[in-house]
Design brief:
Length: 382
């Protein structure tokens, strides 16, 4: 039996992952900061956000896949539901596996009105094995202020299945079946009021990616399009807009006209690495100073061999098994590689590609380059 543990065992083609980085970073001849985008693609209106709702309920109609009797709050909930229908029961009367306690969540759109419907997500709270085929009983959904904003009910769709034999020892499952969705399962009971409707004088844009240069450019573009004094950048994220006279009390038409305004959004120089998957994505105005790199790999091999030792000629003892284990460590060194300076993302990729290392080794090299000051970019590890 032979086992090999090495940082270099993942021999994914470095060129392929760097091509993916090129596509994600949007490499072209011009700098990333010169790429025009629409205003509504890089900003949102402050206060115009979705609101989260949560509730508690039970799912019925399960085929013996619900909560067991050891889940006491499910039994209590069933008793309360039956009591609301005029039936008095106790814990001994409630012994069903066809019911499961669940948490119900939904996202309420910013401009929602009473009567609108939204999707809800249902997640098991107890030890239910599947919510397949179940139906959520009418449940209240509350916001952070503890007010009821919607009610939810309907058939749960889990997008999978769970099946077991009569003994319960053998089963088969596809996808995650203890959580599901109810399309259009919640009906809103309240209207949503936002800041843009409550402040007729104006509103504030919020950048999805805060940047001082982009905020200044947004304010300049709005002033050039709608007149001086229309917009002012308060910080790297917020641009305050005072509605012009012709849009007084009418922020909707202003947003409609300003949404397609072309903005030269400045891109941050950033490298995002995922150590779990070995993914490296580069974007923005990344520069690389001249440097020299040497990177080696350590391979550890554990080889185990079992040898049967026969007994001696004058004994009735059984044969014995002798285990021999051999551990070897090999370090594969690399020559020192010189990399000249690179001013664009494409040049950075070509420079790093000359090293010829695996993606996981590249992650370690990128972090070392950032620490040494050679790589002019923020490194984010996810």
């Amino acid at each position: 039996m032979r086992k090999t543990m090495s940082d270099a065992t993942m021999k994914t083609n470095l060129a392929a992952i760097l091509v993916a980085a090129l596509l994600a970073g949007g490499v072209c001849a011009a700098p990333a900061s010169a790429q025009p985008v629409r205003l509504k693609d890089v900003t949102r209106v402050q206060g115009v956000v979705a609101n989260q709702l949560v509730g508690y309920g039970i799912v019925t109609g399960l085929a013996q896949t619900g909560d067991s009797t050891s889940v006491l709050f499910t039994s209590k909930t069933i008793q309360n539901v039956l009591q609301s229908f005029g039936l008095s029961t106790n814990s001994q009367d409630v012994r069903t596996r066809n019911v499961a306690a669940v948490v119900v969540t939904a996202s309420l759109p910013a401009f929602a009105h009473s009567g609108d419907t939204v999707d809800v997500t249902v997640s098991s709270l107890g030890d239910a094995t599947s919510l397949q085929g179940g139906t959520l009983i009418l449940s209240e959904l509350r916001a952070a202020n503890n007010l009821v904003y919607a009610t939810a009910q309907g058939a749960v769709s889990v997008g999978g299945f769970y099946a077991t034999d009569q003994t319960g020892q053998n089963s088969i499952q596809k996808n995650h079946v203890t959580a599901g969705r109810i399309p259009q399962g919640a009906v809103l009971a309240r209207d949503m009021l936002t800041n843009i409707q409550q402040d007729p004088a104006g509103f504030s844009y919020v950048l999805t990616a805060p940047d001082f240069k982009t905020a200044a450019r947004v304010a300049q573009s709005l002033n050039g399009r709608f007149g001086a004094g229309t917009a002012r950048a308060n910080d790297a994220e917020t641009i305050r807009v005072t509605l012009p006279a012709r849009y007084a009390g009418d922020p909707v038409n202003f947003l409609a006209d300003a949404g397609d305004l072309s903005i030269n959004a400045d891109a941050l120089a950033r490298v995002v690495v995922n150590e779990r998957t070995g993914t490296v994505v580069m974007g923005g105005d990344i520069t690389l100073a001249a440097c020299a790199i040497a990177h080696g790999n350590l391979s550890i091999t554990i080889a185990t061999q079992n040898i049967v030792v026969p007994p001696g000629p004058f004994t009735n003892a059984p044969a014995q098994t002798q285990t021999n284990t051999r551990i070897t460590a090999t370090e594969t060194g690399r020559h020192l590689v010189y990399i000249s300076g690179a001013a664009t993302l494409a040049q950075v990729v070509r420079a790093l590609n000359t090293i010829g290392v695996s993606p996981r080794d590249l992650i370690a090299i990128i972090q070392a380059l950032r620490e040494s000051g050679s790589l002019q970019a923020d490194v984010e590890i996810i």
